[in-house]
Amino acid sequence: MDKIVSLCKRRGFIFQSSAIYGGLSSVWDYGPLGVELKRNIKNLWWKNLVHQREDVEGLDAAILMNPNVWEASGHTKNFADELVDCKKCKKRFRYDEITSQQSTVNSQQSIENREQRTEKTEHREPSAENRAPKCPECGGELTSVKAFDLMFKTSIGAVEGEREIFLRPETAQGIFVNFVNVCQTLHKKLPFGIAQMGKAFRNEITTGNFTFRSREFEQMELEYFVKPQEAEKWYKYWVHERFDWYINLGIKKENLRLQSHSQEQLAHYAKACTDIEYKFPFGWKELEGIANRQDFDLKQHQKCSGEDLSCKGVIPYVIEPSGGVDRALLAFLVDAYHEEDVKGRKRVVLRLAQNLAPIKVAILPLLRNRPEIVKMATKIRETLSPHFVAKYDDTASIGKLYRRQDEIGTPYCITVDVDSLEDKKVTVRKRDTMQQERIAVGKLKEYLGEKLEESPK
Length: 457
Ligand code: ATP
What we know:
With 457 residues, the protein is an alpha+beta fold. Helices cover 32% and strands 27% of the residues. It folds into three domains: 2-67 and 158-333, BirA Bifunctional Protein, domain 2 (2-Layer Sandwich), CATH 3.30.930.10; 80-149, Herpes Virus-1; 359-453, Rossmann fold (3-Layer(aba) Sandwich). The protein binds adenosine-5'-triphosphate (ATP). Adenosine-5'-triphosphate binds at residues 108-111, 170, 202, 204, 213-214, 217, 219, 286-289, 322-324, 326-327.
């Protein structure tokens, strides 16, 4: 993991937020390459789930919502984690994580589980059967269990503290409260989905593992509304659909698995829930959860708002695939990271799927002190840049430039040399095989277009 963290910083994928002031714990900034990778992930999700489907519409709801939304959803009362502190080493832990370390099922709990676990006012001794008697780090004695509110609060209006509101801890509620708007304006028939991605905020207790558990992060959520009798079928469909999405984008099959929640782990209203887990260097962890939430959310909002939230007389069931952009990005980076030996020297290469790669083609002059070569290379970049993310770089020797592009996952490098001035051809080098080909400058757009088309859409 240290290698990934260092690569991210060194090459401009991810920086610690406000680093010059000592940072802000578990908040991250995406640098020039990180923002490209993140956009590629989000664009592909949007394209696959919204643009390529007749049955899904998009939404972009506000982060700030009427606090009654969070009353109705149960977050105000229940969105808390249980924490314990070690009396000896003073480290803080999520109680569910240390008690379920032996469990075969994912130790990270979703809101359904959180809801079952704790009320915010609660303060209790660990139960005898569940007790984690000792600190997992130093073996010290633990404090009693305290509830810890995960929602960030702020206030709205000119007078401070006038009305307390929250930064949304998930994007899903924005979809539920707009369900009728979308259903009516677009005359939708079941089944249909509403997709949204955007920022979510959680004042997490236990952080660490780089961006895996951040306090500010992005979610990609789909609420897929179905007839109650078809819920099971669609639940299975979405579990497989979402699993395949990661595989299609290059995640190795052996590093991805499905983990179904047991009956005890399910919330009272959830019929079924499966996590897609990735084998991170720090263990198998949730990338995305797919839940059959039945009609709980819409019924709750109907009850609390007094509005009719049915669609053609039916309150549908909902299947929810809910994933995190930051976790997906981290998994793609970890999975793509390779070290190999090339003629006795280490080569680091990010084997990202081409459509995820932040830069598609780098244009490199063999000799940066030859103005005609530099001119030709910059001209090639200008011609290609309306079609592909293309970058010019002349800040090192060609060997170093190749290594740099390998490390950030650029699938193609174009080198302009002395011969190029005569024959109007350039060398195209492929990231994965390091094979080189001479291609006519006039054919570059077509050549790259064909090659990049080969990646999953
Ligand atoms: P965890 O138990 O790991 O905190 P969760 O089950 O609470 O996760 P959900 O509420 O189901 O997560 O949220 C859906 C998705 O949002 C998760 O699968 C994950 O990808 C992402 N996510 C949730 N919390 C965070 C976080 N703190 N940092 C980054 N991504 C997150």
